[in-house]
C-alpha cells in the first residue's frame, strides 16, 4: 500500500497536530456505534479493575479511612470516563490528585492517558503523562508496597506510563493513516470519474466531427440536385423523377445523421462509437454518389484491401471533404481522386479539381471549417495535409502513416 512507507515522515505532523475542535484543529467526527461500544468496554474494564482492587484492599485491611477514600476515588474516576472523549485533558488533570490517594482508579487513569495521547498533540500528552508519573510516585511514597522497594516501584511506574503514552500515540498514528488512505481512495475515485467524463466528452466530440463531414456531403448533394432542377425545369419527367428521388434519399439520410448528432449532444453516453465506419473499400460508393449528382469523378485507387481501419477511415474523410469542396467551389469541373500506398511507405490520398476563373464563388454556402477539422483529423492520425492551388488546379493531398 502506497501510504504505509510514508508513515515515518508523517509521524511528526501527526503527533503535533490536534484533531479536536476545541484546540483549533479539524472537527472531530461524530461518535459512531463502534465508538459507543468501545466507550462501554473501556468503562466496564475500568470499573471491574476498580471493584477488584477495592475488594483486595477491603479483604486485607478492612474498611479503614484510607481504603474508603481509595474506593471513593475509584468510583469518581470511573464516572469521569463518561466524558473523556469530550474533555480528555480536563479529565486526565482531574484524576491526577485522585491517583495520589487511590489505587482503585488505576484503570480509569490509564484509559484517560491513552485518550489524551490519541486526541491531543504530543507535548500535551507527554506533559499529562509526566504529571501522572509524579502522582504515581507520590502514591508509592504515601502507601509503599511492602513486597517491593521504592526504586523497583518507580521503574515499574515509569515503564507503565511510557507504555500507555506509546500505545495512545500508536492508535493516533494509525487513525491518521487510515483517514489519509480513505481520502486518497476518495480522491482517486473522483479523478477516475473525471477521466471517464473527459473520455466521454472527447468521444462525443469525435463522433460530432464525423457527423459534420457526413452532413456536409449529404447537404451538398441536395444542393446540386436541387440546383439542377431549378436551372432545367423543362427536363424530361424521368430525369426529374430521378433527381427528386435522389433528393428524397439524401434528405432522409441527412435527417438520420442529424438525429445522431443531436443524440450525441443530449445523451452523455452518445450513440454506439463502435458502429461500422467507412474505409477505403467504400470509396467507389462515395464516388458514385457524386457522379449521380452530376460531378465527373475519376477514381484511381491502388491501395489494397488490407488498409488498417483507422487509416482507411481518415482517407475516406479526406476524399469526402475534397468532393464536397469541389461541388461547392468548382461546380462543373472534373475531379481526379488518387489513393496509393502500401505498408511501410504510407498511404497517399490526393483530390484534384479545376478552379473557375476569378477564383470562383461558392454556390453552396459553408462554414469554412471543413479543412480545419480535416487538418486536425489527419494530424491526430500522425499524417500531413496540404491544400492549395497548383498549376491551375486545386489540390488536396494527405499522407497517412501505414506501419509495415
Automatic annotation (TrEMBL):
<keyword id="KW-0902">Two-component regulatory system</keyword>
<keyword id="KW-0472">Membrane</keyword>
<dbReference type="InterPro" id="IPR036890">
    <property type="entry name" value="HATPase_C_sf"/>
</dbReference>
<dbReference type="InterPro" id="IPR011712">
    <property type="entry name" value="Sig_transdc_His_kin_sub3_dim/P"/>
</dbReference>
<dbReference type="Pfam" id="PF07730">
    <property type="entry name" value="HisKA_3"/>
</dbReference>
<keyword id="KW-0597">Phosphoprotein</keyword>
<protein>
    <recommendedName>
        <fullName>histidine kinase</fullName>
        <ecNumber>2.7.13.3</ecNumber>
    </recommendedName>
</protein>
<keyword id="KW-0808">Transferase</keyword>
<keyword id="KW-0812">Transmembrane</keyword>
<keyword id="KW-0067">ATP-binding</keyword>
<dbReference type="InterPro" id="IPR050482">
    <property type="entry name" value="Sensor_HK_TwoCompSys"/>
</dbReference>
<feature type="transmembrane region" description="Helical">
    <location>
        <begin position="148"/>
        <end position="170"/>
    </location>
</feature>
<keyword id="KW-0547">Nucleotide-binding</keyword>
<dbReference type="GO" id="GO:0000155">
    <property type="term" value="F:phosphorelay sensor kinase activity"/>
</dbReference>
<feature type="transmembrane region" description="Helical">
    <location>
        <begin position="122"/>
        <end position="142"/>
    </location>
</feature>
<dbReference type="GO" id="GO:0005524">
    <property type="term" value="F:ATP binding"/>
</dbReference>
<dbReference type="GO" id="GO:0046983">
    <property type="term" value="F:protein dimerization activity"/>
</dbReference>
<feature type="transmembrane region" description="Helical">
    <location>
        <begin position="89"/>
        <end position="115"/>
    </location>
</feature>
<keyword id="KW-1133">Transmembrane helix</keyword>
<feature type="domain" description="Signal transduction histidine kinase subgroup 3 dimerisation and phosphoacceptor">
    <location>
        <begin position="203"/>
        <end position="268"/>
    </location>
</feature>
<feature type="transmembrane region" description="Helical">
    <location>
        <begin position="37"/>
        <end position="58"/>
    </location>
</feature>
<dbReference type="GO" id="GO:0016020">
    <property type="term" value="C:membrane"/>
</dbReference>
<keyword id="KW-0418">Kinase</keyword>
